[in-house]
# Entry
Amino acid sequence: MPIYKTKNENFFKKWTPEMAYVLGFFTADGNMIKNKRGAHFIEFQSTDKEIIYKIRNALQSNLIIGEYQSRHKNHSKRYRLQIGSKKIFNDLIKLGMTPSKSLTIKLPTVPEKYFHHFVRGYFDGDGNVTISKYIRANRNNRRSTTIVSGFTSGSEKILKELHNKLKRLADILGGTLYYHLGYRLFFSVNDSLALYKFLYQETDSKLYLSRKKKIFEKYFRIR
# Structure
């Protein structure tokens, strides 16, 4: 007997913390496909297996997650969740998503109550955080530790809009937007710490990528 494939087709109709997070991740790493037969699909992709399974659970789905190993030796395995649903597809259109959106995507209109959930999802898709060491010449060449974070996108517009909103809602004072193989929004130490507090302010939320959260917390232990 075939297994009935489930998904919550009303997931994007009402704002919740889970919906805002998944929308943020989809804004970064989601795709929308309409094939020649008129079937509608959405899909999520990541090299982080953990987050694709969390998103599948949020969408109340039992669909199989595909695993794909690139032919390039240096590329990590990718995980993909693909959902066929014209209803979900159209709800995402209403929220500002489009097929082939990577260069044109704008910041969706997200209620402020849920904006940190949206940004956390977007960060887990297109965000980055790095700890590094450098030599401080004015302190007898001692090695110091620093942290930087930010976002990348093919769309300059979304990063400009995101930067302006973070400065208003997340106590972020600086940040630099520049172009290098794509647009990048860069935050130094103090703004990275403000970003951390904004992203993870609700400790009961399970929707986050552990790998990135742990990098912030490692910095707190060694600083």
Remarks:
- The first helix runs from residue 17 to 29.
- The chain has two domains: 11-101, 121-222.
- Helices lie at 17-29, 49-58, 86-94, 115-126, 156-169, 189-199, 210-222.
- Residues 14 and 79 are 27 Å apart (CA to CA).
